[in-house]
Amino acid sequence: MSKIKHSLKWALFDSIQRCKKLTTFKKIHAQLITSGAVSNDFVVNRVVEFFAKGPNFVDYACDFLSEYDWKVSSFPFNALVSGYAIGDSPKTAFLVYRRIVKDGFLPDMFTFPAVLKSCAKFVGIGYVRAGLFDEAVGLFLRMDVEPNAATFVSVLVACGRKGYLSVGKGIHGLSFKSAFGVGLEVSNALMDMYVKCGCLPGAKQIKSFMKSTVNTHSSYNHNSVQLESIKNY
């Protein structure tokens, strides 16, 4: 019987790693509780990795961790905050941080770096929304934090508004070396930056990576290059 339970636990571990939907995870979670494996450190770590995949799981993630004693190990809590901070959800990192602190968690030396990373990303976005484009570009060039998609988009908007083509090209190269460079949002931002800076060859280069031509045509038309847009049909 113990061998069967052991096999079940490992099957559940594998299911967590392949799980992509919260509804499916809840079923696995119930089986983990029934099998007594929910308190296993390996399980907790895999669960945290699952939650960090998307901001829609925040409430459930915090409820899950509320059953875990952070005094035993702060790793799951810090891993969850870090997962959101280095990904595409800096706001979610803040929400999780506030929630777990409210529930009694005491931050440590590993918690604050993740929170500060979120701060850096938020400030850059805030500068762009406030029209402080020079400040946004300057912060991006100074910050020692791996950018996410939102950060790339914001600084590319700033480059386009100020005509900073050389900086924009540098960000182009950096974005395509990251996991976010092939995303539609970043590609659209690159396209817009090149067009606003009057660099149509750069815009054409980005076009080959884009899945949709709708934004391409509107961008060209915005810059009075209707002929080029018509040729693309």
TrEMBL record:
Protein keywords: Repeat
Source taxon at top rank: Eukaryota
GO biological process, any: RNA modification
GO molecular function, one term: RNA binding
Any Pfam family: PPR
Extent of the PPR repeats: 73-107
PANTHER family on file: PENTATRICOPEPTIDE REPEAT-CONTAINING PROTEIN
NCBIfam families assigned: PPR
Name listed for the protein in its UniProt record: Pentatricopeptide repeat-containing protein
Organism, scientific name: Salix udensis
Phylogenetic lineage: Eukaryota, Viridiplantae, Streptophyta, Embryophyta, Tracheophyta
